[in-house]
Amino acid sequence: MKSILKYSFILLFIASGCMVNAQIPKSEKQYLIEFFKGTIGEQWQNTWNLKADPSSWYGVEINDGHVVGLKLYRNNLSGKIPSGIAVLKNLKSLNLSFNTLAGNLPKDIFELGTLKSLRLEMNKLSGALPQDYSKMKNLEDLSLFNNLFQGAIPSGIGELENLKALNLSSNYLEGRLPKSIEKLANLERLELFGNKLTGPIEVDLGKLINLRELILSYNEFEGDLPSSMATLSNLEFVQLQGNDFRSLNSLLRMQSQNLTIFDCDDEFLNMKFGNHEAIKPCLVDTKLEDVKRN
Hints:
The chain is an alpha/beta fold. The chain has one domain (2-293): Alpha-Beta Horseshoe (Leucine-rich repeat, LRR (right-handed beta-alpha superhelix)), CATH 3.80.10.10. The chain has helices at residues 2-22, 26-38, 267-273, 290-293, and strands spanning 60-63, 66-71, 93-95, 102-103, 117-119, 124-128, 141-143, 148-152, 165-167, 172-175, 189-191, 196-200, 213-215, 220-224, 237-239, 244-247, 261-263. It has a ten-stranded mixed sheet with strand order 1-2-3-5-7-9-11-13-15-17. A seven-stranded parallel sheet has the order 4-6-8-10-12-14-16, with no helix packed on it. A hairpin with a 2-residue loop joins strand 1 and strand 2. It is elongated, with a radius of gyration of 23 Å.
């Protein structure tokens, strides 16, 4: 009988510990409630019962008593993202893609130093991108494509030293590609399709030694393509068409043996490098990769 009571006590102790572990600080819970209200949570596809514990709320991931994930993609969110999100100081993944969120981004999103993945693509977000990214040393994935962002690409993006994927395609960004991009030594995917970017590319692309996908198509780039691009041996997917490049001759010395898709405005180079049976739209990651990439 004593052993049964002892075993029951242990189970009760473990269960109590789990309940404590699931609870989150009041400040984090309050922000989630404000987020719910600001994005018209009553109309979400998978809504929250605000009277229930946050650990039961759809898309909320909790670990060690803190919110570490907020994943509400394809959930019929609208309205605006409320400011104050920096209170979720343990957040590692924020995925609000494929909704109809509007308005400017709260600046304090970019104060989340633990964030590894920020995916806000396929919304109606607008305004200029923030200038300061110095606190986001852990960010690996920044995906903002298919929104209404305007202005220049901030040079501060070069501070994202661990960034592997940068997708700003299908916005209204203009001006030159900031030279600071060349500092992103871990970058594997650079996608800028369908903006209003102009001028010569003065970025030393050869420094992006891990680059696998380079998508610059349908902008207003001009001048000669940087010759260092030819040294990128890991390139698999390249699209350059729809620009005003004066010369692409440097690509004749392309060293990559991994190219599967290549498209530019030079038919000779297309025949030399392209795999036209496999050509697909430039927004390569508009297909849902949420399970794989989160």
